[in-house]
Specification:
With about 160 residues, the protein is of the alpha/beta class. The chain has four helices and seven strands, in the order H-E-H-E-H-E-H-E-E-E-E. The chain has one domain: 3-Layer(aba) Sandwich (Rossmann fold), CATH 3.40.50.2300. About 25% of the residues are buried.
Length: about 160
């Protein structure tokens, strides 16, 4: 009787956990965190260009990537909380736009998640990267600069 009870419990546990196992086996889409100190309306052209660039590299929002947008709408004091939300969503990368505030908030919140930032800021002066020739940890300046006749990303690649 004891063996029979153990067998029933084991089979019951298998039946109850099977749906969760199949959910765990599904591939989840990577999450991109998009952090801005602006508003969706003001940054609509930038977001459209961002989506187009992702699409050109094979990433289509809703199909194989999720983009989580967080807007501070001019209230930089909200940025740390917005970054925390993106970290809870397990963003694989954070795109920080709208100047130094979003980039600095993202860098302060995580040393491991890559942060791509824009905004015409001096990343060395702000301490976001050690030098333009080599990016520090996981920060990447998406701004471009001219070197001779070729354009390069600010991390020198």
């Amino acid at each position: 009787m004891n063996i029979r009870r153990k067998l029933i419990v084991a089979l019951g546990a298998g039946v109850l956990t099977a749906p969760f196992a199949s959910v765990g086996q599904q591939q989840t889409m990577p999450v991109i965190g998009y952090l801005s100190n602006g508003s969706p309306t003001a940054f609509a052209p930038m977001v459209a260009a961002f989506r187009q660039g992702l699409s050109e590299t094979g990433y289509v929002e809703g199909q194989n990537v999720v983009i989580e947008y967080r807007w501070a709408e001019g209230q930089n004091d909200r940025l740390p909380a917005l970054v925390t939300e993106l970290l809870r969503r397990q963003a694989a990368v954070i795109v920080a736009t709208g100047g130094s505030g979003p980039a600095l908030a993202a860098k302060a919140a995580t040393p491991t998640i890559p942060i791509a930032f824009t905004g015409g800021i001096d990343p060395v002066k702000l301490g976001l990267v050690a030098s333009l020739a080599r990016h520090q940890n996981s920060q990447l300046d998406l701004g471009a600069r001219r070197q001779g006749d070729r354009m390069t990303a600010a991390n020198g690649s």
